[in-house]
Amino acid sequence: MRIHLTSVFVDDQDKALRFYTEVLGFVKKTEVPLGVDRWLTVVSPEDPDGTELLLEPDGHPAVRPYKAALAEDGIPAASFAVDDVPAEFDRLRELGVHFTQEPLEAGPVTTAVLDDTCGNLIQILHSK
Fold first, then answer.
1. FRET pair for 93, CA 20 to 30 Å: which of 52, 101, 112, 120?
2. Do both 77 and 128 map to the same domain?
3. Is 25:91 a contact under the CB 8 Å cutoff?
């Protein structure tokens, strides 16, 4: 068994697609119209057949309070691995990304937390 698909709830799929591709560097894999929304996934360019991230609309009544509570408490909705957290932090900050946590070493991991502009906090991390 392996993870095939995971999702983040987003408040605007177009804005999310721009952020996750143009800023974070993912690539669009699937886009299927479903009325006003789409089945919209992105993947890592390093693993195009790997786990897909669904940019899922946050229209369900339970989702927005859930997202807001996580963000208010500083809890990331997702975590993405990077090779070098400080370098990725610098690259993303130069692109205007807002971080709620600068790079922090915690034993064998280094983490940082960013705002994805779509209502989520996202952790980037590197394990030694």
1. 52
2. yes
3. no
